[in-house]
Design a protein that fits this description.
By secondary structure, this protein is of the alpha+beta class. Helix content is 19%, strand content 38%.
Length: 258
Amino acid sequence: MRLEIDVVMDYQLAGAEPVLLTVEAANLTGQVIHFSSLEILNATLRHIAGEDGQGPRVWAHVMTDRLNLRYVASVEVLRPEIALETLDQTALHDLPGAVFTYLRPSRFCPSDMFLPYAAKTFGHLSGGRKVAAIRDWVAGAITYAPGSSNATTCANDTFLSREGVCRDFAHLVCTLARACHIPARYTSGYSAQVSPPDFHAVAEVWLEGAWHVVDATGMSTAASLVVIGSGRDASDVAFMETLGPAYPIYQNLIIRNV
């Protein structure tokens, strides 16, 4: 599947300052970037590696108090769709060091608080069957409700309120998977099925020696998601980070299958 991506962002900044952006498609196995262009007015750019070296980030040293950005890309997704239920769990002592960190609690995924619940609810299952059950539970228990959460909402809040957006769905899947001793990370990306179009968030779990996409919102699949970057939770892959306040004037994302 090939996706065409067109992102326009116009933000009012507190002043001329550096802005850290995570908006470009990652050059990863499973997706091929045929074209990619990032233009930011009145700014000098410096690219750095993303979390765990996955995906690019860019420092935009903006010379005015406005961030005007356009990102255009054409990306082919070659990632296969694999049924989670067919995958086995990797023993803890066999996990790579870089993967083991995704078993631990993080700011928005307090998995240590969910150990008893996870054992009671999903303890009778194993491996990919357990992850599929977590995905289905989150999909059924949480209502997708734009505006129901904010930048400080964590998985515990979502579990109690029973509503959220893709960010909250991904945090809760990651939290429950980690509470079941399955490595899980938060991944941002683009999907043509997201409505309204926006930066999308999913979980990825480590099963049988590889990461696998898990989207409890049902708005993307492994075969339809263009990955931007991954981390412990949303704090690692925010699409924009500024030193001072930033106010959106205009933002538009067009993502389509071709």
